[in-house]
Amino acid sequence: xxxYFSRLIALVLVVVIGLMGCSSSSSTGMSGDYRQDTLALVxxxxxxxxxxxxxxxxxxxxxxxxxxINQFASxxxxxxxxxxxxxxTTMRTALNSLAGHYSSYPNRPVxxxxxKRLEQxxxxxxxxxxxxx
Length: 133
Fold this sequence. Notes:
By secondary structure, the chain is mainly alpha-helical. The chain is built from 5 helices and no strands. It folds into 2 domains: 1-29; 31-131, Photosystem II Pbs27 (Methane Monooxygenase Hydroxylase, Chain G, domain 1), CATH 1.20.58.810. The protein is extended and about 70 Å long.
């Protein structure tokens, strides 16, 4: 009886872990619509960058920004049709810069020079998406 019970527990654990793995890939927060996902990401990153340094929500916004960057990159990294779009290449440049800062200097604020460059790149991405490129 003990042997069957341990096998049943093992089977239940395998099923639960399997189902959790399947559900995590579908709950990335990305809809699959490149234009919509990119515009939403740009808005969330702008919000995270505009928060004052003494804001209590700053660290939560930065961690959410990192998570959004990772989700966006993992969703659209391998799509060859997007690699030709100017909005995609500009967005990847901006995301790499911001992610690099967050990973290298997690406790430091984003420098003004980087903020200005990111704002410019985000504007270019939005304009390119409005043009359809």
